[in-house]
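Consider the following assembly input.
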Amino acid sequence: MAEIVLEIKNLAKFFGKTKVLRDISLTVEKGDVIAIIGPSGSGKSTFLRCLNLLEEPTRGELIFQGKTYFNIVKCKNDFVDYDAYHKALDKYEEELVRTEDNLAIYQNLKIEGSDDPDLLNKIKAAKKEFKEVRKHPVQKIDYYDAKRYEEAMKNTPKFSISSGEINKIRSKINMVFQSFNLFENKNVLNNCCLAQEKVLKRSKAEAKEVAFKELAAVNMQDRMNYYPRELSGGQKQRVAIARALCMNPEVILFDEPTSALDPEMVDEVLNVMKKLASEGRTMIVVTHEMNFAKNVANKVLFMDKGYVVESGNPKEVFENPKTQRLKQFLKM
Amino acid sequence: MFDWEKIGKIFAENSDLIWSGIATTLILSIFGTVVGLILGIFLAYGKNIKVKDTDILIIKILKSVLRGFCVIYSVVLRGTPMMVQALIFKYGCQALGLNWENIRFPSEVLNVFNGWLIAGLIVITLNTAAYMGEIVQSGLNGVDKGQVEGARSLGMTSAQTSISVILPQAIRNALPTIGNELIVNIKDSSVLNVIAVSELFYRLKDIATTTYSFLEAYVILALIYLVMTLIASGVLKLVEMKLDGKKISLNPFGRYLRARKEI
Ligand SMILES: Nc1ncnc2c1ncn2[C@@H]1O[C@H](COP(=O)(O)OP(=O)(O)OP(=O)(O)O)[C@@H](O)[C@H]1O
Ligand SMILES: [Mg+2]
């Protein structure tokens, strides 16, 4: 059995009230090429960003090479006092109806041509009251049971990780972005050297040597002294890949690496990625390139609305989709 | 009547004073701009301190105080004239028992270094810092933030990211405005004559009263300021071109070629 590199257990991410990731579990083995597909807004980018903690998950457990680097099992949402919440919700709706009716009454009076001299002020006040009520909707999170929550937290060991350790993890789980995110003030060579020197503490000469090697691997060795603004999109993305490779990462996360490219440049980047896959690199790739997912990946996840709806090997997923949603997505 | 001969004469007879005035003005404006820029960088970051929910109470308080200080500092120093700031600084120091006049330097180079110059340097630096804070902040806003994520995702700390990636670009973007601040300082350092900093204006005012040639002295003064600001903007242009990687050519018809060494 292959070595397990990354384990994701019950990962969830909420932005305030929007639940972007619900409950995602995934085991990544060495050499896996995992393709993540799904409609826009389904949480694919957020998932990748949680893996290297660019985004802090709301809950879940992340384990890298056997070592837990993120773990929140319980969150306040698990301890909502539903009685209190529903009571508050009812009261809120009542208030809403009452103030709205109030406003409507005065407005009708105005239409009917009432001679109350104070009417305009009354309308204003009613409007204000209505808006005030509407401004403070009831939120579940405000009604969690603090006592039960704190008790539960006391019994679960507190998990914390220093920012130094987070940085160490990030240097092993690199990310390639849709928008390249190259350093505009550094040339291609220094884009590849900077993090090696700062994070891995390699010497200048050593870093340069690694950069030469990796830039050659993506066929950018003759553009060392160019600045990002002098490169085409495809070239930029290949440099970004080389920059990640320079860190000797265990896992490389790709977030739609070809989506910002002109069609004729997509292949040069996909070919580099195919080469990496064939070299046994562990990769997680969010992509809209179905052919890449079909032919290169050994595992495909279909995400929708924050859930992994279907997963399996590409053959299963593409030729025999089980759910309606995936069928729709694949236009079958 | 305006007398061109007199101009030459005044210049010749007082050249020592005039040169020391020029030196003082240059020291004030260059030091004020450079150190003001450095302080301005801290100010820009200070104004953007974010208090996090996860911070402990003492850190929250400290952060808020620091942030409040930076905001108030920048509003007050940009909202009052430097001349008034200089006077308040002078008399404030006196009230605290510090008289800048008493600070003497053993060997006075060109008559330039004395206690008032130090006071002047402090005032112009603190004043410039407030403007530089704004300039750096808008420079920072202009940098594409994706690069922060690019750097952080490789494991770089936020300090490393700022120093190696973001600040250089912010300052490069803001360079024209920063250069403008140098030119403003060359001219505005003249208000420091109110606390007896013997810069260029102070010297020429002196010369004007002793020679009774007011118009001529002030025309000389204007010309010197003009030459200084023109030279400063020329130098800044060259620096900018150099940073853009354009080959500097003194031949106005020469094309700016991109110097690119192949490895
Ligand atoms: N910082 C944020 N604050 C609030 N909501 C966010 C934030 N980031 C993402 N979201 C929301 O999370 C949802 C999922 O976003 P995400 O970028 O992960 O989707 P995606 O699957 O990558 O989509 P796409 O294919 O368009 O890139 C979206 O509805 C988005 O509005
Ligand atoms: Mg996305």
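Chain B is about 70% helix and 0% strand. Ask yourself how this observation constrains the way the partners meet.
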